[in-house]
């Protein structure tokens, strides 16, 4: 039996733990236990976040104004990365779900599953160089990398869902006169949908962890590209600001997918 705290108490617990974490962070930096280059204080990170979302002088005393960081606001970097992730994960869904249904229901699973496991085991940095050679340093190589990060978990989750459907359920609708296509849409796909949504959540997580690798080359605008470039320039406060934005965006996306799951498969967990 799962322990469930009321929403107000859960929120209070999260706020308290976050406040304690920030306080400890401030205390460590205030006492000088860690050099600011390695761990800037929270105030510097906030200043970097505000600076990255506003117009400001290019240097102290200069009248020349610049826009955010690398001529884009931080939120514009985030939107650019979200667009790449949406296309990459969307492609993973369009290819992974039908392929997973076929692999789970036919002999194709025996033939193709070793190759799928091979692809799933490869870290993104292993083939980012090859993708750049094939597709250049533009968005195409980045989207392909995010697709390759998202495609295997979606396909694997779909296969798992198909194999979890009882054969007598499909035989029952077929005996009642349903066609193979109808058994797919009425029984197989709805029964597999919870697993597919879990695979999509995992795929989005993989895409987020891959976004920095995807945006190493010519990743501006892009939140991962900005974090990488800021690290090269030793702008630690900006790096941490980007990391926080990436983390908060990932949590928001996951919460959105959980809400979508409750709408599409309200029966999950109630059997």
Strand count: 2
Instruction: List unreliable stretches of 5+ residues.
Output: none
What is the strand arrangement across the widest sheet? 1-2
Along the chain, the helix and strand elements come as HHEEHHHHHHHH
Give me the number of helical elements: 10
Taking all Cα atoms into account, the compactness measure Rg is 23 Å
Helix content: over 70%
Mean pLDDT across every amino acid position: 86
Q: What is the SS-derived class? A: mainly alpha
Largest sheet: 2 strands, antiparallel
- Quote the beta fraction: under 5%
What is the 3D form? elongated
Distance between the termini: 14 Å
3D architecture notes:
The protein has 271 residues and is mostly helical. The chain is 73% helix and 2% strand. It is built from 10 helices and 2 strands, in the order ααββαααααααα. A hairpin with a 7-residue loop joins β1 and β2 (65-67). α2 (42-52) packs across α10 (236-264). It is elongated, with a radius of gyration of 23 Å. The mean pLDDT is 86.
From the structure above, extract its key features:
271 residues, elongated, mainly alpha, 2 strands
């Amino acid at each position: 039996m799962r322990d469930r705290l009321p929403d107000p108490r859960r929120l209070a617990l999260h706020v308290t733990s976050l406040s304690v974490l920030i306080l400890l962070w401030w205390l460590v930096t205030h006492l000088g236990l860690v050099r600011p280059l390695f761990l800037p204080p929270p105030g510097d990170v906030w200043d970097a976040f505000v600076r990255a979302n506003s117009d400001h002088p290019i240097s102290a005393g200069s009248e020349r104004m610049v826009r955010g960081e690398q001529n884009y606001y931080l939120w514009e970097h985030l939107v650019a990365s979200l667009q790449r992730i949406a296309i990459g994960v969307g492609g993973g869904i369009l290819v992974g779900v039908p392929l997973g249904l076929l692999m789970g229901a036919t002999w194709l699973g025996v033939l193709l599953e070793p190759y799928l496991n091979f692809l799933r085991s490869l870290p993104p940095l292993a083939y980012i160089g090859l993708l750049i050679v094939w597709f250049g340093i533009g968005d195409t190589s980045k989207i392909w990398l995010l697709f390759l990060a998202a495609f295997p978990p979606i396909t694997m989750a779909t296969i798992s869902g198909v194999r979890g459907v009882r054969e007598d359920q499909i035989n029952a609708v077929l005996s009642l006169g349903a066609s193979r296509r109808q058994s797919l849409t009425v029984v197989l796909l709805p029964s597999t949908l919870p697993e597919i949504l879990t695979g999509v959540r995992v795929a989005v997580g993989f895409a987020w962890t891959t976004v920095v690798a995807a945006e190493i080359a010519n990743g501006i605008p892009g939140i991962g590209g900005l974090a990488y470039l800021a690290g090269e320039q030793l702008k630690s406060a900006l790096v941490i600001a980007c990391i926080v934005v990436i983390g908060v965006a990932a949590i928001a996306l996951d919460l959105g997918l959980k809400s979508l799951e409750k709408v599409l498969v309200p029966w999950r967990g109630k059997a």
